[in-house]
């Protein structure tokens, strides 16, 4: 402890010398982020340029804020933002606790064999390709002869709902599908975090007469709050970039009013249409919003869990 | 620091054959065998990187004077194919496939095809053009200049990504024909190959142009019959003539009759009268199934009797269509997933005969030619009141462009030129003499072995053991990258094995039994004129609108009021996007040359 | 638990009962959830063992109707799958190792709160998570780095990941400072602390990051398709992606019989064949998990600290 305080007081120059091995460890990291990430990120100037194949990124002509103007004055800009936010909220916030709950449940299972098997099973869907998933979803949700409709019919319902064509089912379907596909996978990190919680604490809690739920609440959750906070901050940055694939799979003319998000829009308009500048502009908007969210979330997390990204 | 890393990476870089595409101009230029013409046009590549990694891609072309006139150069040409049909039908080993080997022997060229799977062809094309990483040459879909790929190709050509091949064309064996009057279709000539705004340069070659225009002649051997197909057993049971179904009312009545007939599918469930397109639900099938109700024949635009141009949504015709389909839906005459079903399930649907009518399929799909269960229905009348199939005349299929950075583009051009000569076509279509065909009375005839594999649909044999196209059953690449085709006059049959092959007997039989008539409507789809520079803003806005999806939305609306509000809102969006400005422009173009746009009524 | 002393008071019985109920509840939910997952996967399995033509007429659910191994034979006959396997396994092993090494070193350095510039670095790294380069600039940069058509493109772009880096950093921060201090007193340098203290104590997080990275490598088809023009250098997932996407060739209009024929040839890949390919490419990586699982057992880490 003494040495720590000493370092803290030491001037920056001294500290740099003291920590030189750490800087050595960081060299590959810095090189990587400059070459692989930051150089391409600089390519985002495309958002302000009319991209010419020959002149390249830096040589192309400036167009100022044209793409931003086109986007913000477009008739469906508001709808896009609203949809993106809704999907983002579902994915970043609503779904967030489920993986934790699954991890906690798995942790409580005493039969090791059952635990291992169910753990393996829950992470299976992560490996299924989307081409296969879309067929499955259609089989399950088809009107009349779909599995779900047949179940509804068996219980005396009408069983002719066209789930994929009705916009009010879009968010529930998205939510369920996402949970189905991801929570097993996401829970792995929490399982690892739970593994790091000191077992002695549990024993002490039991002595104090704490029930199972109490132990989870008072020991396990605080024990993994670092991981939870971290993943929450990470997730919240993606609020406006909720991914393209899943939504595109579920998108039908019936629900496209809700299913058009910025990511879908970028692929549909920007990349397929070869409008790279426009695509970059939207990417920038998403990034900026993400940045604001992450900074805010980081502040809040710092206060609540002492976890901070920087 | 960056330089250092670059250097390090470079040193690890595998010295492979692909180096030729990454570094421009390693090795010397092997074009000294050219028969005298235009040596000065070869870009003088300064060997920027005289590295030692050229890995023998360029061995010296040793004194080829004694070679036949087929010889081009001892080199490799790398072609990127943005065409999934091409890369789904390639030999496992391109170097050792007999036809590729034979080409190498005769011309010295080792053709190497590369591709990017799993992504939309167009998106890859866009990204690779933008990044400037195209190899020696590229091919992509391009039926005409209205294809969505065209703006990309045009921009790339304008930006100087492609080599100017105008000098080589006059002396070429096949492509010189492109300069002849009336050989090329109007659109190909004016908008793709010899564009005025290219100032005499030629960057894009349209592929797959037929030598003789047979677009108006009906030859059952060469026709694919698209549109709706109906179960033969149902036709027999109802005792109807499927060709007599002409109007939307006829079609509706037929659907009602089928429904009332109480037919069952293989699993004992009720047959639904009308199902989706065979390749999965899509709005495309509407063009066949509800043909008479489609007013916007030119990319949703058309001209009314007063000479005014409208988008279909701006007219009341849109309500006729929507209400018709809504009626079918309400009465259970059409599959609810007509617009959305995925491909696997649609296939399943028809394998178990669960729908009486396939919304759209054609006679070269196995479900049609492998049984006698399905026969063509209609075709239905269009808005003109006849059921002729519209054709725009002679056309092309794909586009070839040579990279401006390619080493000695003339050799590449000459290679593609050679492929389209009689010798090239014979080799790439029929394969190797003695192995896959023999000459009988001056015409190639497939060997029994080849015919047997063809009939069995053994495409692996055709890809790996021969490597020829066999009219699309084998290596489709050749079919796609050649031009000036005339199989009937050259080889005596419309495609290898057309006489004697059994696979497609049923296809031809159907085409013979249910002949179609053609009518010529010249011109391009209206939206191709959005590509001009003064329309940029309008295009950007209009591209965001999806009329087809709006239609489906309206069709599935809860009530008429909602239908109306959906359409009204679409109309407002059209207006806001600047459709009026676009219509003005169309009018101008049409008045100048009515054949420029394919309006008809 | 049942071997506890027999001092069962009323509350204890009640608590045991509560716990029983809770256990039952957990089992019930987990079983239901697993069923929801396993049934569709069984369907994939059943289809893969069913005759392709027969399966196309529908009705194959959880058990094949016409047993066959043809689909598997067919997939394996394609030499590119086996070649792809070798490449994939290579990149999983090399890539995971390099990533773990690089990330753990960086995380160890960044965990030091007093490191001048550390805060800025952390922020700059997080920044890359929010702003991507976009397809084109990335492509151009890879080209400039000569990564295109180079096996390194499988390894280098995935070396670091913001999430994993932060995950490891957070984990390292949780390891008591006292251990580090005492190591320092024993004359250990930073590299020594890293190797002798951090690594042995971080098995759970290394296991999880390693697993995530390995699976990421395994599943990645995109870099093969996009940055490797030579299809002989594709990993197995890219090969499979080509198989799966064969069917989706509806983006063009048909203009000739040859094209019509080619289209139906391209479609020959039956659903069953696809499923067989899916099974073949999924099962190996699934087998990795059980080996990693043991590191997640409760107390695995702290036990090590104390022992």
Description:
The complex is a heterotrimer of chains A (310), B (601) and C (307). By secondary structure, chain A is an all-alpha fold. In chain A, 71% of the residues lie in helices and 2% in strands. A two-stranded antiparallel sheet of chain A has the order 1-2. Chain B is 36% helix and 11% strand. Chain B has helices spanning 2-12, 19-22, 84-87, 98-107, 121-131, 150-158, 186-193, 232-238, 248-261, 286-289, 317-330, 343-351, 366-369, 409-419, 422-430, 448-456, 459-466, 476-481, 487-491, 505-513, 536-542, 547-555, 560-577, 579-592; strands at 75-82, 109-114, 137-141, 204-207, 227-231, 272-274, 301-303, 309-311, 355-361, 374-376, 389-391, 398-402, 437-440, 443-446, 518-520. In chain B, helix 11 crosses helix 22 (547-555) and helix 22 (547-555) packs antiparallel against helix 23. Chain C is mostly helical and 307 residues long. The radius of gyration of chain C is 26 Å and the shape is flat. The two termini of chain C are 23 Å apart. Chains in contact: A-B, A-C, B-C. Chains A and C meet through helix 1, helix 2, helix 3, helix 7 and helix 8 of A and helix 1, helix 4, helix 5, helix 6 and helix 7 of C.
Output the strand order for the largest sheet of chain A. 1-2
Helix content of chain B: 25-40%
The low-confidence parts of chain A are none
Rounded to the nearest angstrom, the distance between the terminal CA atoms of chain A is 23 Å
């Amino acid at each position: 402890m003494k040495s720590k305080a000493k370092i803290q007081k030491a001037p920056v120059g001294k500290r740099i010398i003291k920590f030189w091995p750490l800087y050595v460890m960081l060299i590959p990291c810095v090189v990587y982020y400059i070459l692989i990430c930051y150089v391409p990120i600089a390519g985002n100037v495309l958002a302000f340029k009319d991209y010419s194949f020959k002149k390249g990124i830096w040589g192309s002509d400036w167009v100022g804020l044209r793409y931003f103007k086109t986007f913000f004055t477009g008739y469906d800009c508001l709808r896009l933002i609203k949809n993106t936010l809704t999907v983002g909220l579902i994915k970043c916030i609503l779904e967030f606790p489920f993986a934790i709950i699954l991890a906690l449940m798995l942790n409580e299972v005493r039969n090791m064999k059952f635990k291992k098997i169910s753990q393996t099973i829950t992470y299976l869907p992560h490996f299924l390709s989307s081409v296969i998933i879309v067929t499955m979803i259609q089989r399950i949700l088809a009107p009349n002869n779909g599995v779900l409709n047949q179940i509804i019919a068996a219980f005396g319902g009408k069983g002719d709902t066209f789930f994929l064509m009705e916009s009010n089912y879009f968010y529930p379907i998205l939510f369920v599908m996402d949970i189905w596909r991801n929570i097993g996978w996401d829970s792995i990190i929490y399982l690892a975090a739970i593994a790091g919680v000191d077992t002695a604490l549990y024993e002490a809690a039991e002595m104090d007469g704490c029930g199972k739920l109490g132990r989870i609440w008072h020991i396990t959750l605080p024990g993994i709050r670092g991981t939870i906070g971290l993943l929450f901050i990470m997730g919240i940055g993606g609020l406006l970039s909720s991914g393209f694939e899943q939504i595109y799979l579920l998108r039908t003319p019936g629900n496209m009013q809700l299913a058009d998000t910025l990511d879908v829009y970028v692929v549909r308009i920007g990349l397929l249409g070869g409008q790279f500048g426009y695509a970059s502009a939207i990417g920038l908007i998403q990034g900026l919003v993400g940045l604001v969210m992450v900074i805010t979330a980081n502040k809040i997390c710092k206060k609540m869990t002492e976890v901070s990204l920087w | 620091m960056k330089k250092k890393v670059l250097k390090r990476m470079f040193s690890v870089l595998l010295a492979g054959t692909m180096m030729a595409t990454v570094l421009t101009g390693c090795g010397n230029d092997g074009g000294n065998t050219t028969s005298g013409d235009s040596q000065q046009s070869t870009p003088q590549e300064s060997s920027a990187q005289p590295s030692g990694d050229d890995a023998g891609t360029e061995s010296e072309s040793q004194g080829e004077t004694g070679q036949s006139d087929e010889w081009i150069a001892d080199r490799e040409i790398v072609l990127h194919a943005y065409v999934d049909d091409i890369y789904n039908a390639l030999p496992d080993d391109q170097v050792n496939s007999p036809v590729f080997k034979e080409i190498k022997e005769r011309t010295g060229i080792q053709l190497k095809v590369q591709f990017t799977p799993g992504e939309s062809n167009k998106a890859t094309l866009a990204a690779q053009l933008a990044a400037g990483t195209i190899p020696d040459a590229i091919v992509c879909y391009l039926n005409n200049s209205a294809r969505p790929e065209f703006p990309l190709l045009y921009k790339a050509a304008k930006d100087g990504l492609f080599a100017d091949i105008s000098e080589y064309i006059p002396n070429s064996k096949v492509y010189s024909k492109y300069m002849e009057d009336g050989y090329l279709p109007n659109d190909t000539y004016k908008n793709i190959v010899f564009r005025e705004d290219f100032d005499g340069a030629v960057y894009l070659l349209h592929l797959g142009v037929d030598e003789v225009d047979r677009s108006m002649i009906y030859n059952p051997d060469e026709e694919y019959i698209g549109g709706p197909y109906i179960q033969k057993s149902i036709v027999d049971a109802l005792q109807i003539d499927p060709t007599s179904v002409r109007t939307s009312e006829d079609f509706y009545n037929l659907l009602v009759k089928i429904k009332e007939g109480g037919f069952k599918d293989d699993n004992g469930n009720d047959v639904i009268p009308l199902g989706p397109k065979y390749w999965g639900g899509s709005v495309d099938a509407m063009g066949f199934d509800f043909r008479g109700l489609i007013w916007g024949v030119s990319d949703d635009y058309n001209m009314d009797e007063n000479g005014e141009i409208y988008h279909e949504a701006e007219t009341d015709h849109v309500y006729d269509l929507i209400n018709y389909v809504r009626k079918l839906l309400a009465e259970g005459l059409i599959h609810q997933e007509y617009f959305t079903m995925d491909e696997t399930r649609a296939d399943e649907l028809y394998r178990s005969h669960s729908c009486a009518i396939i919304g759209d399929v054609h006679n070269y799909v196995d479900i049609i030619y492998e049984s006698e269960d399905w026969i063509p229905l209609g075709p239905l009348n269009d808005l003109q009141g006849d059921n002729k199939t519209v054709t725009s005349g002679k056309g092309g299929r794909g586009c070839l462009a040579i990279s401006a950075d390619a080493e000695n583009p003339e050799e590449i051009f000459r290679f593609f030129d050679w492929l389209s000569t009689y010798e090239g076509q014979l080799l790439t279509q029929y394969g190797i003499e003695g192995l896959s065909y023999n000459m009988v009375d001056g015409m190639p005839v497939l060997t029994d072995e080849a015919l047997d594999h063809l009939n069995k649909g053994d495409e692996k044999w055709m890809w790996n053991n021969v490597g020829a196209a066999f009219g699309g059953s084998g290596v489709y690449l050749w079919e796609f990258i050649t031009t000036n085709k005339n199989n009937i006059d050259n080889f005596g049959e419309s495609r290898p094995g057309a006489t004697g092959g059994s696979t497609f007997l049923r296809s031809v039989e159907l085409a013979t039994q249910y002949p179609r008539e053609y009518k010529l409507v010249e011109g391009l789809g209206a939206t191709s004129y959005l590509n001009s520079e003064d329309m940029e803003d309008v295009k950007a806005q209009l591209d965001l609108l999806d009329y087809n999806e709006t239609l489906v939305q309206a069709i599935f609306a809860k009530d008429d009021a909602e239908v109306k509000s959906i359409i009204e809102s679409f109309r407002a969006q059209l207006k806001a996007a600047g459709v009026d400005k676009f219509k003005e422009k169309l009018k101008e173009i049409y008045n100048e040359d009515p054949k420029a746009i394919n309006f008809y009524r | 638990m049942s071997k506890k002393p027999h001092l069962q008071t009323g509350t204890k019985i009640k608590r045991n009962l509560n716990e029983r109920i809770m256990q039952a509840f957990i089992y019930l939910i987990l079983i239901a959830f697993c069923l929801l997952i396993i049934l569709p996967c069984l369907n994939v399995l059943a289809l893969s063992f069913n005759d392709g033509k027969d399966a196309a007429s529908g009705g194959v659910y959880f058990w094949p109707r016409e047993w066959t191994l043809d689909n598997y034979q067919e997939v394996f006959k394609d030499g590119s799958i086996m070649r792809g396997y070798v490449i994939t396994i290579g990149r999983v092993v090399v890539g995971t190792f390099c990533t773990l090494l690089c990330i753990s070193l960086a995380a160890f350095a960044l965990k030091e709160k007093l490191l001048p510039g550390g805060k800025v670095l952390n922020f700059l790294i997080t920044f890359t998570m929010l702003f991507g380069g976009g397809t084109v600039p990335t492509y151009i940069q890879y080209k400039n780095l000569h990564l295109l058509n180079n096996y390194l493109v499988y390894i280098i772009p995935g070396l670091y990941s913001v999430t994993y880096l932060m995950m490891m950093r957070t984990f390292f921060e949780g390891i008591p400072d006292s251990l580090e201090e005492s190591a320092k007193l024993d004359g250990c340098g930073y590299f020594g602390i890293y190797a002798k203290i951090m690594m042995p104590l971080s098995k759970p997080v290394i296991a999880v990051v390693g697993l995530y990275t390995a699976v990421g490598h395994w599943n990645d088809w995109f870099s093969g398709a996009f940055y490797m023009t030579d299809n002989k250098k594709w990993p197995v997932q890219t090969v499979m992606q080509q198989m799966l996407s064969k069917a989706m060739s509806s983006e063009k209009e048909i203009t000739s019989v040859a094209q019509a024929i080619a289209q139906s040839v391209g479609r020959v890949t039956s659903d069953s064949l696809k499923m067989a390919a899916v099974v073949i490419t999924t099962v190996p990586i699934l087998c990795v998990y059980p080996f990693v699982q043991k590191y997640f057992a409760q107390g695995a880490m702290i036990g090590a600290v104390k022992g």
